[in-house]
Amino acid sequence: MAAVRDLKATEMAASGGDDAIELGKRHLIQPWPYAGSVGAEARALIGEGDGIYITDSTGKRLIDGPAGMWCVNVGHRREELARVMYEQAMALSYNTPWYTMNAPSAELAMRIAGHAPDDLSHVFYTTGGSSAVETALRFMQFYNNVRGQPEKKLILSRGGAYHGSTYLSASLNGRPRDRDWMDGADELVIKLSSPDPFRRPQGMSLAAFTDFLVDQFRDTVARVGADKIGAFVGEPVQASGGVVIPPDGYLKRIREICRDNDILYVSDEVVTGFGRLGHVFASGDVFGIDPDMITFAKGVTSGYFPLGGVIISERLLQELRRSNHPDAMFGHGLTYTSHPVGCAVALKNLDLLEESVLSHTRAVAPYFQAQLKTLEELPLVGEVRGAGLMGCVECVADRESKDPLQLDKDVGKRIDAHCHELGLLVRPLINMCVMSPPLIITREQIDDMVGILREGISRTMDDLRKEGVWRG
What cofactors does the UniProt entry give for this protein (predicted)? Predict the structure, then answer.
């Protein structure tokens, strides 16, 4: 069967791959393009997926290192999910959420609430992560308007954060280059320092760094005024910022400050939710916090169908129901809110996670982290960090100064190109390589992945030396 699929992929490459690439260059606008190539660019064409592997247009089989975009958690080609998609589409392909509802969305909301911490019990569905964060922020605005606090709208975010591409969600982003040429609601957002221990001031202990972050948060609330701040939005692990793991206890202390100052804590679990750290949600099970809202997407359907959402605390909803404005309308919704096909797929995906994938993730995660950590032996690697089945290899020109490669900001792309040739797709982020494979990956496949990544970095070091960019 595998041989038949490989032959099919090769035939696809010979017949249709070149055509698709040319059509892409002529008609497709890729996400995050540069002005110099916008609307005239083709990227690596992927034809098939199977388990942890994908096949490109040349027929080369690659380990899907990023699991699509942090999302193909149960792996490619899961017949169970494809069958559910078909069956639900044949039964009910769509219903308007404005004045009707469907059964899969109600059942899924109940099951999601069962995994959420504390009293997070109600779900508003969106089409993805950006719209989930946007929804949480709009709900915060509505909530404070109804409570008679229209000035309580400012949002706290952090350096290194990534929360989406819609207007409000993108305004929170704090990664390099994200906002260089893009507008945003800057008047609503206050940026705090990234909780990145690797980039803490030289000579500062981890405990002192944690105190600095907490003091900065508390001082900002005091300076700006709690009556002006509506929400703090934070990823438990800053994913696209380079898999930044916060210091122990930091999130709990920030949660307490938010609670003491009536600031809604929004935990952005678009990446960490649905298994990436071995649990459906990491907020409570991994970090011991009980947010007011949790956003999710990606792994909720393992990427098989666009779906996201916000889980909202019962306390917030009760306050709204008790308010003096019972006719106030939360004027927010999406055409595909509570989509029946997406919710049906998510239900089956959750079955797979609960049956074996979550326990498997927890079992192999320590091995995954240990094997990645061996890459710190390479002179180009400054730090390897991660949690669960997400990891980052950060390359630096000088380990002492921790200076990213100023002469070569595209070192991640160089490594990715070598790894592609060797059989691994990498997520390159400037001077970092991010890895988040499908959760079904085995120890043997982890060995393969890390071995290829080691060789890709080694070849990149050779290239940089030859070009005189880096001495090592």
Answer: pyridoxal 5'-phosphate
What would the pLDDT profile of 153-184 be if each residue is shown by its tens digit?
999 999 999 999 999 999 999 987 788 899 99
Positive or negative, the Cα torsion across 273, 274, 279, 280? positive
Residue 74 predicted with pLDDT over 70:
yes
Would the pLDDT of 3 be above 90? no
Burial of 401: CB neighbours in 10 Å, binned 0-12, 13-18, 19+: exposed
323 within domain boundaries: yes
pTM beyond 0.85, yes or no: yes
Contact 313, 275 (CB under 8 A): no
Residue 441, CB half-sphere, CA atoms under 13 Å: how many?
35
Q: What is the dihedral of CA 323, 328, 329, 331, to 10 degrees?
A: -110
Q: Domain count of the chain?
A: 2
> Which distant-in-sequence residues (6+ apart) come within 8 Å of 189 by Cβ?
154, 155, 156, 157, 171, 172
Instruction: Please give the span between the terminal C-alpha atoms of the chain, in angstroms, as a whole number.
Output: 46
Residues 266 and 316 occupy one common structural domain: yes
Question: Average model confidence (pLDDT) for the chain?
Answer: 94
Tell whether 1 is covered by a domain: no
Asked whether residue 319 carries a pLDDT value surpassing 80, the answer given is yes
Encoded amino acid at 51, one letter: G
**Residue 21 Cα to chain centre, angstroms:** 27
Q: Is 177 found in the same domain as 301? A: yes
Tell me which residue range forms the domain holding 197. Answer: 95-338
**Segment 451-472, tens digit of pLDDT:** 999 999 999 999 999 998 888 8
Q: Are residues 360 and 457 in the same domain?
A: yes
Q: Judge whether residue 5 has pLDDT over 60.
A: no
Beta strand 293-296 pairing with 308-313: antiparallel
CATH classification at residue 45: 3.90.1150.10
